[in-house]
Amino acid sequence: MKLQNQLSLFIFFWFIISCVFGQQGSTDSFPIILNRAYDFYDKGNYKKSVKEGRELLRVAYELNNLEYIGEAYYLLGLNDETIEEYGRAKEKYLKALSIAEKRNDSIFILDIYNGLGNIASLRDNDFEKSEEYYLKGLEIGKAINDPYKMSFIINICWDYLENEQTQKVLPYLSDLYAYSNENDLKELSIDEAKSFSNVNYILGRYLGEKSNFSKAHYYLNKSITTAKQSSNYEELSDAYLADSKVFEKQKKIDSAYLQLMNHNKFYKLFLDKNMLNKLQVEEVKFNIEEYERALELSQKEQQFSESIATNRSKLNRVYLIIAILLLILVFVVLHQNSRRKKLIENLNKKNKALKLAEKKAAIAAEAKSNFVSNISHELRTPLHGVIGITSLLLSEDEISPKNKKLLKSLKFSGDYLLGLINNVLLMSKIDRHKIKIMPRSIELKNVFNHIGRTASYSAEKKNVAISFQIEENVPKYLILDDSVLSEVLINLIDNAVKFSENGNVWIRAKVPKEANVDLKEKVFIRFEVEDNGRGIPAEQKESIFYKFSQISGNESIMEGTGLGLSIVQNLLLQMGSDIHLESEIGKGSLFYFDLLCGITKVKEQEKVVEKEEVIYNFDNKRILMVEDNEINKLVTQKFLSPFNIHLDLASEGNSGWEKIQKNTYDLILLDINIPYFNGYEIAQKTRAQNINTPIVAVTASELAEIEEQVYNSGMNDILIKPFNKSNLLEILSKYLN
User: Fold this and answer.
1) What is the SS3 assignment for 180-238?
2) Are 97 and 71 in contact (CB under 8 A)?
3) At what angle do helices 190-209 and 213-229 cross, to 10 degrees?
4) Which among 84, 201, 296, 405 is least surrounded, fewest beta carbons within 10 Å?
């Protein structure tokens, strides 16, 4: 040890001795007393825990140490709460809270709010007060990202369910689902197992009250399994009772009765255990009351100090021994600090390794995303040629009926492949949390018309009749994200058509009977997709929403990727909803979900009108198309051939830029990925020369990935490949008509 350290230790030693002899208080440091008190508490020796807490409070007041005054009040309150002296516990918690707020100790405030919330709920049955404390604690927990916030979510959701306020659980579902999934396969401590069991109980009970029976049983069974492993009879009893009520709601009386018997069994075990705990609590109460009476009969702190003064010489020797022990303790602490430093170094190394692994995982995820994006781009470009040329051939009168049938099949295959690519891209965006919900004012009838046109060919192929119905009480104009709604409904319709050959599919929109939102501002709309196909087996109602999952049992209809229903469920979660399924083998299936939609105000309705038939007039308009793919050029030329348009073509960036400089155009169709100068560079050069010709980016890339860069480079619009004739004419009409 260096001389400087030895001198510091010597000074510290004599400082301790001077403090010991100069002060007639406790010779233990605050943390030692506090830890000792909590050790007694954890072992169930509440009398000694209270004694140590009182000693800590006395010494902390003598030295005016606010931190440990607050800690002492909280400890004493915790003991009072445990032995069900709720009035005294509340008084001490409030004193601790006042001190913690002065010190701005967020973590300590969390513990106190939880205790106050428990007392308001258990003793006073004051749900509003307990809700207030839990919400305050939850707000602080979220602000400092403390894991303890989950305890508040569990407590508040439990109270909501107990007080029949089921709808209030909705904002916390994402946290509950995340906690359930993250801890599903982990080895849990006793406290973690209790939290995990409670989370799954809340989810199961909520889903049961929402009539999502399969998921309700799934989460309640998870709760039961965990509670059994940790012998938590109270959680077991509650979970079996909730499961019994779900079965009763399903009118499955035998299953409901079986679970009720299980509830009674474990409730009796809980009562037996609880009775033993009650006896122990009463014994502890008696011991503490005896201690309090003994303390009152003694001469308390002043008399105790006087007795110490009369035995000064003996106590001085004791203090000296204690000081020596403290010196030994200092050496032990120094040794522990050395070990602690090594431990911190090891932790830092592991943290660095963890960060490196996290970085590698992020790079791998980004590489996967880029790969999916690049592959989709490379597939979309030739698909544009296939779908475009097929569409052109179908419009020719000279094509024989036999060949038209073949061309329709080819176009369907192209559209199917495009849909598959879009689904893979969409799943990738969902995995990366890149989905953005963008509500706007729409007319639901127009959305249904578009969906009907999209699904018509696959329905014809399977000889399935599709019908749409919007009930009269559904507002004509709504505020929602129609692109996400279309994606959800198209996937559900495709799924229904696949399993309903020669049958029927019905798509409905209505206001559910249980909706209680003010219709002047918002409304719940229930969307249903029903078929009379083969139905879905009960054991597969849960698994069909997993990625790549398909219904087994009939190889003739094992088609598709198994992504559709997974996409549906994830998109609905993004919109604050969930998918529900009712199905019976041989009779068909009903999928439905509820969306909370805004209602468009009267003045805004004028903006939502059906597109009138447009008369295109492009006479003598001059358009430059910069495109390196000959098939795409041919398709575009054919699309524009009926119009008196002068179409100029360029195959790469250099020639395109030269034409822009030499000629005047009414519109430029500019492919982004072309040789030499790419589309972004050409657009920037064009704007730098003060050429204001409208430029439309033509690309097979995903819109979200290129949108910002397109507009930043000076382009006016985007046309995604593969596009059809109407898409192209709509763009031209926007800038040329």
Assistant:
1) HHHCCCCCCCHHHHHHHHHHHHHHHHHHHHCCCHHHHHHHHHHHHHHHHHCCCHHHHHH
2) no
3) 160
4) 296
Distance CA 146, CA 138 (A): 9
Write b or e for each residue in 699-726: b if 16 or more Cβ atoms lie within 10 A of its Cβ, otherwise e. Answer: bbbbeebbeeebeebbbbebbbbbbebe
Q: Using the 8-state DSSP alphabet, how is residue 279 labeled?
A: H
At residue 116, the pLDDT reads 87
Number of Cβ within a 10 Å radius of residue 45: 16
The alpha carbon of 178 is separated from its chain's Cα centroid by a whole number of angstroms, namely: 6
Q: Which helix (H) or strand (E) holds 526?
A: strand 522-531
| pLDDT tens track for 662-675 | 999 999 999 998 88
Question: Which of 2.40.30.20, 3.30.565.10, 3.30.413.10, 1.10.3470.10 is the CATH number of 438-605?
Answer: 3.30.565.10
**Partners of 670 in beta bridges:** 626, 697
The letter for the amino acid at 680 is Y
- Domain ranges for the chain: 28-212+265-299, 300-337, 438-605, 621-736
For 43-86, write each residue's pLDDT tens digit.
878 888 888 888 888 888 888 888 888 888 998 988 888 887 88
Which residues are paired to 281 by β-bridges?
A: none
Distances (CA, A) of 238 to 218, 233, 257, 262, 266: 15, 9, 15, 10, 9
Residue 236, exposed/middle/buried by CB under 10 A (0-12, 13-18, 19+)?
Answer: buried
The answer to whether residues 38 and 72 touch, using CB atoms and an 8 Å cutoff, is: no
Neighbours of 458 (CB within 10 A): 19
Q: Which CATH number fits domain 28-212+265-299: 1.20.1740.10, 3.40.50.620, 1.25.40.10, 3.30.470.20?
A: 1.25.40.10
Task: Give the domain 621-736 fold.
Answer: Rossmann fold (3.40.50)
DSSP labels, 615-662: ----TTEEEEEE-S-HHHHHHHHHHHTTS-EEEEEESSHHHHHHHHHH
Kindly state the helix (H) or strand (E) to which residue 488 belongs, with its residue range.
helix 482-498
Tokens matching residue 27:
């010779």
